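Technical note accompanying the year-one report. For the benefit of new consortium partners, we illustrate the data format agreed upon in the data management plan: each record pairs a sequence with a structure-token string. No post-processing was applied to the example shown here.
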Amino acid sequence: MTTNVGTVDRILRAALGAVLLYLAFFSGVALFAAPLFKYGAAVIGVVMLVTSTLKMCPIYSVLGLKTCKDC
């Protein structure tokens, strides 16, 4: 696996993942009471956290994108 996610991108992904998980399970917002939105947000949130932790995004690999300076 080649690193293709930079520091700023990692921070934004981790923040977005945490917000989506919070909205899905703890916010009480009516929109996230529906199972589709609740579990959809949870899956996307987990994917965002995993890609920020691994410093690798499969979609970036397919598209040939890199947001890191040193890789």
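Partners are asked to follow this layout when depositing records. The mean pLDDT is 95.
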